[in-house]
Fold:
Amino acid sequence: MAYKLCKKVRELEPYEPIQGNYKIRLDANESFFNFPDDLKAEINDIIREIDFNRYPDPMALELTKAFADYYSISPENITVTNGSDEMLYLLSSALMKSGSNVVVVDPDFSMYSFYSFLSENNIFTYKKNKDHDINVDELLSFMFENNADMVIFSNPCNPTGRGISSDDARKLVNGAGDCLVVIDEAYMDFWNQSLLKEANEYQNLIVLKTASKAVGAAGIRLGFAIANPLITKALRSVKSPYNVNTLSQKIGACIYRKKDLLKERANEIIKNTKTLYIDILKVVDNYKLPFRVFITCANFVFVETDYAKNIYEMLLENGIAVRYFPKYSSLRITTGTVKENNEFVINFEKYIIKNILKRNR
Structure:
């Protein structure tokens, strides 16, 4: 009898991001900055010194120290993973057991549910309000009603850019009882409401970080979990022994030591995002359109409109890639350079004039 795939994976489709060569990529929430030539030269020197015949450091100590120094936290509270996705899978599969109750929120990053599904957790989805905000009291009630073992969400949120304050986040952690609270702060470098420096003080909190957004190192796949020593020991025990390759460790450590450069670039991304938001809002308000443009705490702008699919397809035809969410009839536009943002806004407005205004006359 031939082997048969188990039901849970039989009909899954591989993740396929937008393929093709587009002159402007505003679809993946990446940094629009590449590394400067002098930093690339330093990285090249580091690579030449690597012993490629040896396994990587299983604890990634050099990288952990550089990350800890950058955020002014203790290295003892950090676990490094091969991107945040590895940690998300560990949380649902190793820290939870089959049949555990996991609460996610909607809208939010879809991979939280996906990894919980693979790990055979019971998934309960808290629906945000019409403004895509979390009411902490309602979420706590939802968690208790469903006997939650873990709640996980992004703050600020991907894809909406909305966020809850640090006071509300503390209220959630303190009110969660024995439920594990996982806060993904992938975009918190663009805001200032982090619990990162407080993670060690709680028995039930894990804060996630990444090098893929403000740090601008999506290509080397680095994720970090920050928690108290007990949880950290457990996470370091269940991860693969050599999970982060030597190249990523060495390059990551070098990058995180460039504090001034990283903070300067994060500020530039914040500035460009604010301008992009204002420019999109001006177009929408100028033509009195029933679009919803959400104020953002991240490096992208979230726009709800019945025309989302058509705008998305028109942009692709003009060499501009953004992210389209059919479920919410919305677009998520990552900030780019000033020039890239301006070209997006010009094409966005052209579509409105040509396809919406003429049709409504």
Observations:
- The chain has two domains: 18-33+261-360, 37-257.
- The domain at 37-257 is CATH 3.40.640.10 (Aspartate Aminotransferase; domain 2).
